[in-house]
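Sample log: NAD-dependent epimerase/dehydratase domain-containing protein.
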Amino acid sequence: MARVLLVGCGRLGLAVAKLLHKKDHSVTGLRRDISQLPDYITGISADITKPKTLQQLQLMTFEYIVVATTAGEFNDAAYRRTYVDGLANLLAAIAGPVKRLFLVSSTSVYHQCDGSVVDEQSATLPNHFSGCRQLEAETIANNGPIASTVVRFSGIYGPGRYRLIEQVLNHQGGSSELFTNRIHIDDCAAILVFLLSQCENKKSVDSVYIGTDSSPVTMAEIKNWLAVMLGVDKNDLIAAKDGARRSSKKISNNKLLALGYHFKYPDYKSGYGPVVKNWLDKNKK
């Protein structure tokens, strides 16, 4: 049984905690409000953006730390405060030895927009604040006192994440030329626990992995398929114009597959099917 500190208890964090609990690990969850945490998580009420609230960590010991925080707002200040300063505050507050830190990052650190294949060795020159701050956080983790593994997730979807569904219902289509990459939140959680288990089994784990499913597709393909599932005429979808954050890349998960991870949802159809059913069930009149 490993003692795990989970920093950030949103949807992804709670999914990680549930899987860790099933493997009989001890989970301590750090978040501002711990009143709604399930009983198998020992809650710590703290805020990584406020160093004084983290002082209690100096009296605790953990074997692993999983950082799955969210900025709350989509702006540079919030990203810097949470991902960059928050992580630095957390590392400064940890007193005891830790085997490994797992940091949730994003494929937004990649700048490629020409439809090329991208993997862990590809250049990272983000041109938007979101990718810049995530990459800065990765650097802090890599240069910190704890051995670290960064997991760069692509576009996360799953129950409660209905952005694309709502766009299709509003007849917002997608480009037929730009590639996008997706991953179900269940696979995100399972990947983090899989990597932690590798460490527990004394197997080698690298410093960075990409978490994405096995089927990069165009946004038009996903939205046309969702339209059929939702009973929307796909001919009524209006393709969005390429915006300032134009991105198109085929992100590879070969490194994770080679390590032995098996996806529960290897493509968008297997993953979005249950999500659409969940949405339809919630919105029956």
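Observation: The CA atoms of residues 43 and 84 lie 23 Å apart.
Observation: The chain has a mean pLDDT of 94.
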